[in-house]
Amino acid sequence: MTIRAPRLFQAALWLPCLLILSLFITFTCALSPRKPRLSVLGHNKERNRIYSPSLIASDSNNNDYQTFYYDQTLDHFNYQPVSYTTFQQRYVVNFKHWRGARTGAPIFAYMGEESSLDDDVGTIGFMPENSRRFGALELYIEHRYYGKSIPHGFTGEESLENATIRGYLNSAQAIADYAEIIIYLKKNLSADSSPVIVVGGSYGGMLAAWFRLKYPHIAMGALASSAPILYFDDIVPQNSYDVVVTKDFQDVSRSCYDTVKRSWPEIDRVAAKPNGLSELSKKFKTCKPIKKASELKDYLEYLYSVVAQYDSPPDHPVTTVCKGIDGGANGTDILGRIFSGVIAYYGESRKCYDLNDFFSTDKLSAWDWQTCSELVSPFGRGNETMFQASPFDYNEYKDSCMKKFGVEPRPHWATAYYGGQHIKMILKRFGSNIIFTNGLRDPYSNSGVLENISDTILAVYTKEGSHCLDIVPATADDPKWLTAQRNKTVKVIKWWFHKYYNDLRGFA
């Protein structure tokens, strides 16, 4: 059931609704090298199997979640006529475990990322698990221009084709949206004393951390899982992502790593032969003929990045791929072994392999716009990884964005608006109550916060963990190190609540 409640919080809110599962959208630069999704589940087929709807939030039912639409302001920062335009922004509430406003029971607010809200509700195990633990309300807010939260009168693609309307899609507007909805919800629930913890993973984790810094009067704390907030403005080396991918493969099998590294020039060599592209198409059983070597190389690079980013138990996909590569029959050539790794990942049931399997075919994507305007991550590398050199060239990046959207990127804006340079020195002085969680097998971890900045800005990481593993649903088979990471996070939040309620009593 869907209820539209632009400004009036209706009594029907107390009736529960629907649990939904999902996959997330792609985090890619507008230019090569492409990187896997900044998402909780991504393409990891085993992780998607484990967190199916029947297994997530088993203590919930179809009456626990309810959808609402808020009459959101299009432009929070100007007073031009178009600024007063509104659109319907979707959010979902679950009251099952909430102990109510009288007790000042907390609110966990999930910061929607570059995806439909359908991809969040029921997928983020941290939310129902800790709402139950702390007697909290669950709130999920959809990011503007994704899912159903599209400017009035437009489809998603139409909003991106309109040069004026797409200008209102940025992270600052998004977190201002979240602020309005949280304030509105607390007011209508008479929950002024309820502390808010904002939660997010990947890009959503960045938003959660930034929200705490920009709106400390609204959010008492933030959990930012696998948030690469330092992959801007050359704060970290451009090759940070691929260095970790390479290490993940080296840790599993040195011979697998060597085979991958030697495969790139071999692909080029075969492609240069007469009928070489046809030979590659047959060897890799592609669904469509390969037109240029870069198609195959992009596909393989993305596959290796995906399995590294989501190299989590119980499947450990890097190990799966390397077993395929190392296990080729005697006499199998380099490319034959590489294809054995592809088969090992997907299984042997496929009749052919689609080289566009990982890539969106949409003409325009909202994330392309965000990375072409404000969120410029300079992915690049030299010869120090298992991939071929592909340095970041800002002029090429700019030309690509100009061709697609007619705008030049603002490569320094993210650090100018949110900070990032000298983060330890600066946040120690004015920041507080943020937990940055990471798994060091996640290639994005190299651009996350990996050491404590102060007593209240903390880094909680595991050597074995992968992308956002700490906020997906807990299972009986979780390793001890993962459980320990989650328990440490909960312990910190519990202390935040303890101090908050003590302070609240002191001001009463």
TrEMBL record:
Short name of any one Pfam family annotated for the protein: Peptidase_S28
GO molecular function: dipeptidyl-peptidase activity; serine-type exopeptidase activity
Domain of life: Eukaryota
Keywords, ordered alphabetically: Glycoprotein, Hydrolase, Protease, Signal
Annotated GO biological process: proteolysis
Keyword Transferase: no
Residues of the signal peptide: 1-30
Family: Belongs to the peptidase S28 family.
Name of the featured protein: Lysosomal Pro-X carboxypeptidase
The organism of origin for this protein: Quercus lobata
